[in-house]
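User: Quick sanity check before I run a bigger batch. Here is a single chain. Can you write out its predicted 3D structure?
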Amino acid sequence: MIQSLLIANRGEIACRIIRTARALGIRTIAVYSDADANALHVRQADQAIHIGPSPARESYLLGDRIIAAARETGAEAIHPGYGFLSENADFAQSVIDAGLIWVGPRPTSIRAMGLKDAAKQRMIAAGVPVTPGYLGDDQSPDRLQAEADAIGYPVLIKAVAGGGGKGMRRVDDAPDFADALLSCRREAASSFGDDRVLIEKYILAPRHIEVQVFGDTNGNVVHLFERDCSLQRRHQKVIEEAPAPGMDEATRAAVCAAAVKAAQAVDYVGAGTIEFIADASEGLRADRIWFMEMNTRLQVEHPVTEAITGQDLVEWQLRVASGEPLPLRQDELSITGWAMEARLYAEDPAKGFLPSIGRLDALDLGDAVRVDTGVEQGAEISPYYDPMIAKLIAHGDTRDEARELLADALDEAVIWPVRTNAGFLVEALDHPDFAAGNIDTGLIAREGEALMPPPHPSEEALIDAAATLVPDTGISGFRLSAPNRREGMFLLAGEPVSIDFTDAEPMQIAEPLDSVLITEGGQTWQLAPYRAGGAGAGPAADGAILSPMPGRIIAVDVAAGDAVTKGQKLVTLEAMKMEHSLVAPFDGTIAALNALAGGQVTEGTLLVKVERQE
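Assistant: Done. Predicted structure follows.
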């Protein structure tokens, strides 16, 4: 067994790996950037090494520094986690060349599956069914347009080197193809350094089914059954579950066998995931499930597989990397119960899911379900990395039990002042279609506003909270004209609100409090007594387009003096690994333009001023 392990990652997955390594008696070494100097994974590891400035490209993406840190600390092996360098074949080879153990698949396997077009060609040769599409070398816009026209709309443009929903665009009509291609290529070049794309037929009732596979150095490959990751927003997984709803044994056997065949075709070692797309218009059927891609790493959603199989997949990784055979044979693996995982992000659904950065002054996720996290109360959500706070994983005897356990845990989550998607997740879990298992990848896009959590707490919650903020002076009321009533002005999340709390259930307090947190439906608000001048400066002036977060301007589509229409794209900002389009709030004219392509901006920077058309 490996004796010392450097973890080339951060946050939740680093903490997850440390937990298993510690249980196996393995010494752990963390690496960290400037922004992560006080991070949880740094303090949990046995040793930690600083590797550079906050931006990932200057720290976590520098393989040479990570290998140097391993040598300096005497680490025997490197575990890449997921993201960052986990699917970088060159880095994997460098680790091996340095005489270290790489806890992952062979570099040749990573390369074989890293480019989507080549991977699909290999799968075709291996007899694995693939989605209809274009995988050619001719990348001219005219050829790509012609292929999309021939396939028939809708189609999906996907970055050849893509992953995680990046470099992917759905196109419904031919006239929209050129713009979508340009945007897709730009994002692919920025995220992966490769702007090549492939074209796939877009399945109208798609389910995202993936199979966990595992191989060892003796040529053994098994599957650990399927997961359903169909609940997605903009191609990013939101809630994952195992097993897949509506999966019969015959279809399960077919798709899992195809996954094992795919892994064997690339001589796979370690943990991997074979992703399939299913046409669920007539339910799950073996003849309507096609290979999409392989993720040659541990997946974010691996805990649901652990829950239903009772296995620790990180332990499997470490044992296989140590040269041991797979811990179990295929006939020794089985499914027990149902598991669901929700990705809790620091993002604001009310603002288009823009990341919400800042200090976690309050963080309480309870102990009713498994919580995998890399932060704790008092930590900072940084603008430099993915804004995940935690993964919550529920396991029950049935799907309904797991769903209700997860919804209850999210409902009671206390997080402040950072905004989160917890309320949105509660609404999604409680949606009738999701509850019934009638899901596909378009559910969130279709339902839209129906999944948005309420903007304010309920009247009952406000009344009870207000009563805890006002001392009981023995006086019956605030106003001479209404001596039997108790009411006053408060600040709810910084906005003034009048609350009548005459009928409040809680006992009123003897001493005043500065503020109280209200938690309801997965959302948290702060209520404070109103004080003159305490309402804040209010919203920005009408027509002022401000940068919603720190980032880099990658496109400016207007010039000073241009006439614009409501909803027209003005500026594209790249931040938190995503592109964000800033649009005109109404018809008008560009009165001021402070955005320059390639420029870095901070949160709140005035980028564009639009004067309303008279």
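The chain has five domains: 4-103, 132-201, 208-451, 459-529, 544-612.

User: Great, the batch can go ahead then.
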